[in-house]
From TrEMBL:
Places the protein is found: Mitochondrion inner membrane
One Pfam family recorded for the sequence: CtaG_Cox11
Upper taxonomic lineage: Eukaryota, Fungi, Dikarya, Ascomycota, Pezizomycotina
UniProt organism field: Aureobasidium pullulans
Name assigned to this protein: Cytochrome c oxidase assembly protein CtaG/Cox11
GO molecular function, one term: copper ion binding
Length: 259
């Protein structure tokens, strides 16, 4: 009995007292990840359970209507922009042609391209050069009841020499006074940069009373630089042509041709 009691005491001091805490600690260590994993699963956000609503026929019809409306607005914008550009480009193009002599448009010295001293130096006839034959032509639009003709068929001038020509215009209407505007061109077109007008009836609109007849002058010269251009060496005849159009003032006070 004494030896059994002694053995029990030794075991109690060593193995039995140390194994119980170790077993408890091991179980807690193993159970910690399991509990943590379960908490993580519980706190993970759940996927959205709402289902996407399919568009109804009314929704599709509204989308189609909005698309058609946007297409209509876009098309109208293009049409209006094209019309505005076509109306605005005509006077702008004419102004550029008059300044640069493009498209057979003679240069006007009133445009400010030349200084007064420069103009005076150009108005000196080159006596040892060939004379150029200047012919004249005139016409009117179909809606303008005017008779418009040149008074002379041609004149011959030296480069640098000024010349004066006249046109005659008659308003054939017996019922109304009519405003006319003239456009002009030079043939051949490459001569236009050297054909300079000092004064011309085409610089402003012309108003003729019913049955009225007026003489319209044009004062011009051929720039001496014409002789220095090798492309002009074979040109001896130049035609100045005018066309009159009927015009009227719109509600904004702007003068525009009548088609």
């Amino acid at each position: 009995m004494n030896s059994i009691s002694l053995l029990g005491r030794n075991l109690a001091r060593t193995g039995l007292r140390t194994q119980a805490p170790l077993t408890t600690t091991t179980q807690c260590a193993r159970s910690l990840p399991r509990n943590f994993f379960r908490r993580s699963m519980q706190t993970r956000p759940q996927p959205n359970q709402q289902q996407t609503r399919m568009p109804t026929q009314e929704d599709l019809r509204a989308q189609f209507k909005n698309k058609n409306r946007n297409t209509l607005y876009y098309t109208l914008s293009i049409i209006l922009g094209t019309v505005a550009l076509s109306y605005g480009s005509v006077p702008f193009y004419k102004m550029i042609c008059q300044q640069m002599g493009w498209g057979g448009q003679p240069i006007s010295i009133h445009s400010g391209q030349y200084e007064e001293d420069d103009i005076a130096s150009r108005l000196i006839p080159i006596t040892d050069s060939r004379r150029l034959r200047i012919t004249f032509a005139g016409s009117t639009s179909d809606v303008l009841p005017w008779k418009f003709t040149p008074q002379q068929r041609e004149v011959r001038v030296l480069p640098g020499e000024t010349a004066l020509a006249f046109y005659t215009a008659t308003n054939l209407s017996k019922e109304e006074d009519i405003i006319g505007v003239a456009t002009y061109s030079v043939t051949p077109g490459q001569v236009a940069p050297y054909f300079s007008k000092i004064q011309c009836f085409c610089f402003e609109e012309q108003r003729l009373n019913k049955g009225e007849t007026v003489d319209m002058p044009v004062f011009f010269y051929i720039d001496p630089e014409f002789l220095r251009d090798p492309n002009m060496s074979k040109i001896d005849t130049i035609t100045l042509n005018y066309t009159f159009f009927k015009a009227k003032y719109d509600k904004d006070g702007h003068l525009s041709p009548v088609a």
